[in-house]
Structures are given as C-alpha cells and as structure tokens.
Amino acid sequence: MGRHAHAQIVAGTALGIAVALTVASACKSYDEAGSDAPDASTDSAGDTNAEAADVADAGATKFCERSPDAALCLDFDEGDPAGTGFATRSGNYAIDTDSGLVVSPPASLVVHGPPTRLERVFPGGVKDITLGVQMRFGGVDGGAPPFSNFVIPLEIIVEGSCVFRVQFIDNRLTAERALADGGPYQASYPLVRVPVIGIFSRYELHVRVVNGKLGVSLSMDGKSAVDEVVPDDCPNTDGDVRVAVGLFYGPADLDVRFDDLLLELR
User: Which one, 28, 168, 184, 219, has the greatest CB density within 10 A?
Assistant: First the structure.
C-alpha cells in the first residue's frame, strides 16, 4: 500500500458500510423522503482522478494555497495531521500519511481500520458550513463497496442541535438528535449516488441555516447525492461546530484514504 511518510497514530475497532448522513441520537425513526428512492448512480466517480492528474501535470499551485481564507485546509503533504489542532481518537489501528495513492502529490492520509479519526472544534455562530474532502475506499478497483457493516468517514456536529454524518448504510442520508424529552429523533433520505471502490471522489457535506433550522446536503464529484433537506428537529443553536474525518465503524481490514480537506465556515 505504499511507503509511510509520517508518524503513526494508534487506532481501532470494527466498521462497516452503506451510505447516509446523520444527526446524533437513536430510535424514533421515520422516513421523510418517501419510499420511491431514485436509483443510485456512480457514473462520474472517477472524474476527480483525471482532473487531479491534469493539475499535477500542469505544475499547479498547491491545493491549500488556492483557498487562503478557509477555516481549515489540509493536503496531508507535510507533518503530523494531529499537529493541526485535531484531537486523535483511536483504538488498535493507525493513521498514516502515505505517498502510494494521492490526489495532490506527494502524500495523502490513510486510516487503517476503525474506530480511528481526527476531530477538531470551531467556535459557533456560523450560518454556513462546508466540509469537503477527497476519499478513496480500499478494495477491488471499480467494484461496489464490499462491506456488510457500515462506514462513517465524515461528521459535522452543531452543539445543541444535530450530528450530520456521511455514512454508507442502505444508501441513505439520516439526521438524528436527542430530544428534550429524552427520546431520539431520526429522519432518513435516499442517496442518489454511491461510492466506487478504488477511486478518489470528492465529497462535500454542507450544513446551513434555513429559516431557523439546519438544512443539510451532500455532493459527490460536484453532483448532488442528496439535495438539501431540512429535518424537523435540527434547530439552529449557533453552537460550536465539531468536524471529524476517519473511520467510525466497519471492517477491521478496511483502509480509507483522504486528501485535500477543506473546511469553510461563514
């Protein structure tokens, strides 16, 4: 899988797959999207690889130099990722930087098995949050995700409101939150695009204030995977924003690569 460039950070447990976004809690689950889910499509998942190669060949400006006003930008090319203000949560597995497979040379972040992630907290009061990153799931190139469990590689939490997660499980976007009466809230929406194994794709998780609530959407390679939805019980609280990347649950032998992470807060 390529040679390791920087420090390892121990991590671990079991993770699995399917596609979805979440907002924190459990139980009282209902479908807000209807039963006629559109067919999942993967026709453009490889566009990013060709574009990245063109950029590299042209000797373009480094990725983060193109976004000087971002709240956070990481191309994972230099230094320990945990040194950028991330807290590391890990079990028995590892986080490495590696030069074997990348979008922007010379390196990408590799997460070996769950539960392994980096997370960081930012001050609240923002009205628009976009977390974008290139992701590549290890496995047979071009195949469908071979996971029996589920994988959660991205997360945005707005304190006092919902937890929004990109998770691959039944190809759905879910929103979850603990309610004031102690009960859980969950909403579920179908995804119209799914990952392809062995190919980098750019995921953008977008959360914004919509009429006093939080709306959420997901795109893959610039095309919508979930159009914006506004869950009933995700109020705008102006709370602190926590973002995380890594593997939260899933197969112990799963590797996921990340490159060119960009967080924009407005």
Answer: 168
- What is the C-alpha to C-alpha distance for residues 191 and 168, in angstroms, rounded to an integer? 10
Does residue 177 lie within any of the structural domains?
A: yes
User: How far, in Å, CA of 70 to CA of 93, rounded?
Assistant: 30
Residue with tokens 């950028």: 84
Rounded to whole angstroms, the Cα distance separating 188 from 88 reads: 29
Question: Which H or E element spans position 10?
Answer: strand 9-11
pLDDT tens-digit profile of 104-160?
Answer: 999 998 888 778 888 899 999 999 999 999 999 876 555 556 565 677 888 899 999
SS3 at position 255: strand
* Sole residue written with tokens 């204030």: 209
Nearest C-alpha neighbor of 195 from the set 216, 175, 229, 218: 218
Given a contact cutoff of 8 angstroms between Cβ atoms, the answer to whether 11 and 112 are in contact is yes
- The token pair at 256 is 């996921």
Q: How many domains, in total, are found in the chain?
A: 1
Q: 27 is in which domain, residue-wise?
A: 18-61+117-249+260-265
Q: Is residue 78 part of a domain?
A: no
Q: CA 212 to CA 170: how far, in whole Å?
A: 30
What is the domain-level CATH number for residue 177?
A: 2.60.120
